[in-house]
Design a protein that fits this description.
Elements lengths: L1 H25 L8 H12 L3 H4 L1 H21 L3 H10 L1
Length: 89
């Protein structure tokens, strides 16, 4: 049980960094055109009604799938934006 909690904590620490990077990328003038629609879709996915209708599935969704989708989205960002963020931090 403790090992799984540690893994979840690491996953959310990565997600926090990914959110910061995503915010940084959204404010760049050279951001990819697909970024804003992808962020909107990810936000809508986070607020989907199934989270409220089926609470257990909603928790699994929010704790595991949402951070993974966020990390995949960040990995698709151009290298220049990711390197600009790492130099800033």
């Amino acid at each position: 049980m403790m090992l799984s909690m540690l893994r979840l904590w690491r996953l959310w620490r990565i997600a926090r960094t990914d959110l910061s990077l995503l915010w940084f990328a959204l404010r760049r003038p050279n951001r990819p055109l697909w970024l804003l629609p992808a962020v909107v879709l990810l936000g809508l996915y986070a607020l989907e009604p199934a989270n409220f209708a089926i609470p257990v599935l909603g928790v699994v969704d929010d704790v595991i799938l949402l951070p993974l989708a966020l990390h995949i989205l960040v990995r698709c960002l151009p290298a220049e934006i990711r390197h600009g963020f790492s130099r800033r931090v």
